[in-house]
């Protein structure tokens, strides 16, 4: 008999995240209780809301992006406890092999969005160039996405979970909180450094604000305690988490270290597509989605295969195998950047600066072909661009590349002898939706502030 | 009649760089005279010595790597003046489209090497972990390379020129020298920053030491003047130069900005293969080689297609199209790194740190399969690994990935249930050649020092 | 607002084909009434039962394959009438562009089967070597399929509709029936020819037996008339139909000629995967499935783009564009065959014989690695093998190749120095299910016979 | 020290085939003496003249094609005797693994040609549609080819040897001669069959005419004897030979059965590029070229790995592994054909007829975009088209596909709403060169006739 895929975390899109049958969570903490058990080798299905928990509308207005709170992202399904065939849970020191057998948007919700936050409300990689909140809606036609706000492009996405990870142990959680707090404190001392890139928050520390802890009821003493300790989900860390690796699509395998009994696997932030870097921050095609997974436990595998790099055995990172069914693009236009910033200042082998320059070069170039720079920024953040570190040794210039698949456009965008025709230069309408923070919005805190 | 490919720069491997019929150069300067003219549309062939000008031997000793001087790299063929079909030269503001029709090792010289410099003599990306000079020799069997010092691997390379570029104008050259000098001066003030990565020189400023200026005779007043001004070739810059983009292989097209009359195209640093990042610095498979090229001039194209990003119209970068015949790998093992360094310290969205961690994770993992860490370091620097910036927005962690094609190994290196067999863990012999700076070598200067 | 995908033909798997809400059909005829309308540009979903209409069970017995009737295949959903945005139907002479935006198994029915019919009951390409009915069951894990009867293989399929086509006009239908009848009649005269390949029926002519005509009620005079005329669906013809082109997967575009008002598009015979040739006849992984499609009408396009090749303007064939997301295999073991048959007899540039030899060579080779020849036959018919015509000019030998992706096996199957290990040669159990026609089965007619 | 590649068979293009230092041969026979020895594992280089031995000119006239003699093709380099590391030769029953490490045109001869012979002088697959001799010249720009006679196309080829094989034993040679003679005799009885496809010779039997036997001097008794027995090289057979498998490019591995001591490997018929089928017969881009090879002997491998299919253990075929560096095309326009011929007649599962129809459909379609049908015929024969057998079981129609990579054109050739613009329909000049057999040419025999 055909084995059935068991739905272990259902989502009802008519309900809020906090009202789901199996309650969601948006923090990392070892004490968030698991909501389901799965067994090694079993196929199971997990449904997820989009990273902003349904607060962003399929409409022609970026106000929701402007006012959404980073404190709440990302809404995760799980944790899921993983047992072996004898019913024994995965244990710290094991490696959890998670195969992505299938994934996609939730049936009936075949759309997504790409956005930049206002610079005062989370910003993005290029927030110094693009300070306003912007939003584009994408509609899915099977494997393809297109956007009413970015006319003339259509492409096959590489769908993937932006976020998947195991629960940290208390020891690991403490390491995270300490090192991120230190950064925030040091950051204020060396503001010059941060200005190189932009004016975004240095770190996202624990805060009870908008905190959701699954089965643990808000307001209880347990909730109060955990909410103060639990790590935010914005950055990827040793447990995987929000890695935003765009190629973790169907058929991929993820080897995650296990830090707590049962592994306590959580996931969310489903992307229909994303460019390397996810440069506009809310920068993939964010969607509601499902994952169909199969887990294996490699007993002792974390110790056997991973090498800690840091003061404790916990300083490890996941490894991955890529699946066989990504869209195939054969022609790429590649933009280069070096670690000299837009003011002409030289930086030392700084791949972030080099990558920033490569992305800016791509935006400026493509905007010559009938797009506003805001349209191109969202497009290149969302479509399957490849961002590479070409050279990291040729002092003082790191060299990064950003490759754009040319087949996504309905026109030829490669350089040609002769001038770019005037027609190509007319900005296509409608443009992306834009909205700027005006100061009088009902926002009480900067999203980066910690409790 | 079949058009013939004209050999415009021949190399005689029995002669030194300074003795070649068309003399080589190893600096960027507008006044280095061109050695040949080519016409738009014509196929022409350029031969080149390896980046170290033949000073590295096909032997079992890394002493030559230890003692080679970074002042001399890279030996370039050219400059070549590009004319249109009417005989008019390319002009500043044009875009030069260079198609790579064919390339490879020089016939009779089917071998190359990969090396790390000693930390006192140039170092590498991981010089804090690998402080000694090391060297591996590669032999070519058509498209494949294998190394006696790294047994059990064989792979098809993606041959490419590590370095190709146009001559800078005097104005651009001055910009380079000024911004790099500022970095060197500021660097000393903020040593903490540089220690994050390693202890390598901040910049490589002009110096007459080992300077080669083509047809301009050493010791003449003209030589003295230019040698003091001419930019070193180590970093890639606005003119292209040492980008080390590993995918610029056969069939690629390079769009270079033109800054001087005739464009004055130079090239060298041929690589049989390289991993993204070229992490071991002398880190590709360095070889003597040839390029067969075809140029087109896009009149005004630099102004039409490129957008300056900086104080002057000169702050632009080349763009590229990738060719159709790269080796095809379908299975990759992917290592992740985040911007937390090996001491456990948190950095802010630093892609260089994240990439460093990903590469270190890969080295540690693969060295479990019968290799010394030095062997793996050279291997991953030389084979066609992909280094990506997965996410650059999830404060505070940049997330980078480093993907290794698994088919290059003669064993299965993916994680499996059960322990890694003891056999896999025995280091294969011979190992890479290693040599450490002892202080008593006949070296008078640090290669990074400026005049 | 996100456009919704409209379900135009639903299937209830608990009901028989004849009981579906929108009745199915298994013949081609212009007078089979359409069951739904779709508009150009609209995304719509069509559900389909498997080619045998649910008569084959997910069980350990090939008796159902032995007794199933070829008269009934294939059960098609539709016909669907296609209108332009003004509501005007596609017309004869137009070209219908059908984009496959998405497809897959029906939710809850994630399994399929591959089979050979008994030589007396339909046979297969190699029926002279494999005369019995055999069956293997496949279970789907997302993109992957594996079979309890063929242990040690697992692969990503290239799902596709085996059959999609437009309704023929009466004139075209008459051409079909006449030419196929002529073949059947001539065939008896030149039996020697057919014996070259095997002893299968020459053609499948119209017959009322097991005939299903959608909304036209069985037994009515209209039904009687049409049933005698309507073409069987076994072969692909000018209208597309049962082409079994394995690469018509997600993202493909099919340009179908239009012969009747509304085009009357029908589809079925969904395959999870198939090798080129579909050699075992019931030889794909047959499944229940869905298609999500989008149609465009190219007015006059049949006349503009297609060139008739035959006595009337109707002798045309569809054309296709392949989609971008097929599984990626980089290593293939390729078997060759030439047009010398198994008895040693030379045939003249006969690609069918050469292909037969290539497939037989592949079966014999792979069966050395622990499989029965029946297992390999079903496997190579079902997995994404590539069958090519390498040379069709080198008299007297056509040369065909059959390429097997080696990554589907859990062992290395390439030739190596030394003997194949004994372990590899032990046939893996369980084997495929086999069942032979005994003569006493309740079968009244040979499935190839015509009325 | 870098191992050197040993040149074992040099070619001097200024000399005729019969004047080469190591004399060429154009027949298969066990008694043709070997001209060189190679050792297992050693890299060696073999140079070859084009299939017609230099008789076809780089000029604007197809007269040389009209008058060239099929008796002389193909001019082969070798035979080469293969020894193991102990100096023992490969023996009958072994398998010879030949790796193609590198290949290409001969330096200084970067051009080739594609042609159809006159129907009276060898014809081609579509000789009934294209009865005249035609010729197109191709010039190589590195990996790319373009033709003055077929403007507007340029593509990267997949270079390969059209012909590579081991010497037959006398027993195998007798089998060949007998079965081909039988075909020729039977052919005359069943002319109807051959007329289906065209009016070409059925087989190419041994003949002393234009026979070249390497070191065996013409006119000697030994020569007379062998010339009468030696097999022509036109068809591929059990020993490999003229398989024309277009994907046997760099990095491929060929496993050839060994029939005589030393294996006696011969090779020739180098192709810069070819479409599956090589439909125009002289249908690849024929060139002078070189191969760099490495051999391994798998002792007893022929018996271990290959399964004879026929009356003797000699009825085996080679197997292959495909290399990793073929050009990458992501977009294909696919034409279909079924086994109904151009007169409307139905054939039974005849893949040759189906393939013919697919190719004819492709020619007719593409000729709408500004090409003569002759131009397209030569183009599709020479560029890397894929010819597949989609379905061989759906009686009575075999279904074949012919896929054309669209990126080779300088225009978009996919179907679009609206008429094909008039501009696209103007035949581009110059056209291919054409020449018709007039009866008064100095030709004494039909090239297909046997002694």
From TrEMBL, chains A, B, C, D:
<dbReference type="InterPro" id="IPR004304">
    <property type="entry name" value="FmdA_AmdA"/>
</dbReference>
<dbReference type="Pfam" id="PF03069">
    <property type="entry name" value="FmdA_AmdA"/>
</dbReference>
<dbReference type="GO" id="GO:0016811">
    <property type="term" value="F:hydrolase activity, acting on carbon-nitrogen (but not peptide) bonds, in linear amides"/>
</dbReference>
<dbReference type="InterPro" id="IPR054833">
    <property type="entry name" value="FormamaseFmdA"/>
</dbReference>
<protein>
    <recommendedName>
        <fullName>Formamidase</fullName>
    </recommendedName>
</protein>
């Amino acid at each position: 008999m055909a084995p059935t895929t068991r739905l272990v975390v259902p989502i009802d899109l008519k309900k809020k995240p906090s009202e789901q049958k199996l309650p969601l969570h948006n923090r990392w903490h070892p004490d968030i209780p698991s909501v389901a058990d799965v067994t090694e080798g079993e196929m199971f299905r997990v449904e997820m809301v989009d990273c902003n928990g349904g607060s962003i509308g399929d409409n022609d207005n970026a106000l929701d992006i402007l006012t959404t709170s980073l404190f709440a992202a990302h809404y995760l399904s799980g944790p899921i406890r993983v047992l072996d065939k004898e019913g024994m849970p995965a244990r710290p020191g094991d490696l959890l092999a998670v195969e992505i057998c299938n994934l996609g948007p939730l049936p009936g919700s075949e759309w997504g969005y790409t956005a930049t936050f206002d610079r005062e409300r989370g910003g993005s990689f290029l927030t110094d160039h693009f300070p306003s909140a912007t939003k584009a809606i994408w509609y899915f036609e099977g494997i393809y996405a297109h956007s009413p706000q970015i006319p003339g492009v259509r492409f096959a996405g590489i769908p993937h979970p932006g976020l998947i990870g195991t629960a940290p142990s208390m020891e690991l959680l403490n390491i995270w909180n300490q090192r991120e707090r230190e950064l925030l404190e040091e950051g204020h001392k060396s503001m010059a450094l941060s200005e190189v890139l932009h004016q975004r928050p240095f770190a996202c520390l624990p805060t009870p604000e908008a905190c959701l802890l699954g089965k643990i009821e808000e307001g209880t003493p347990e909730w109060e305690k955990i909410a103060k300790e639990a790590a935010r989900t914005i950055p990827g860390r040793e447990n995987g988490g929000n890695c935003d690796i765009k190629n973790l699509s169907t058929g991929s395998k993820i080897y995650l270290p296990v830090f707590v009994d049962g592994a306590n696997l959580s996931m969310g932030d489903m992307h229909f597509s994303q460019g390397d870097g996810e440069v506009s921050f809310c920068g993939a095609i964010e969607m509601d989605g499902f994952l169909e997974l199969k887990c294996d436990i490699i007993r002792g595998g974390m110790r056997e295969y991973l090498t800690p790099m840091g003061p404790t055995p916990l300083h490890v990172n996941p490894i991955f195998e890529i699946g066989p069914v990504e869209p195939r693009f054969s022609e790429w236009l590649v933009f280069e950047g070096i670690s000299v910033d837009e003011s002409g200042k030289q930086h030392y082998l700084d791949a972030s600066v080099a990558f920033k320059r490569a992305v800016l070069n791509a935006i400026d170039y493509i905007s010559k072909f009938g797009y506003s720079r805001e349209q191109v920024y969202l497009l290149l953040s969302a479509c399957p661009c490849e961002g590479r570190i070409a050279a990291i040794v040729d002092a003082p210039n790191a060299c990064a590349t950003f490759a754009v698949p040319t087949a996504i456009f309905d026109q030829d965008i490669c350089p040609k002898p002769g001038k770019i025709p005037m027609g190509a230069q007319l900005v296509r309408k409608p443009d992306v939706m834009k909205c700027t923070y005006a100061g009088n919005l009902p926002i009480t805190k900067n999203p980066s502030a910690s409790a």
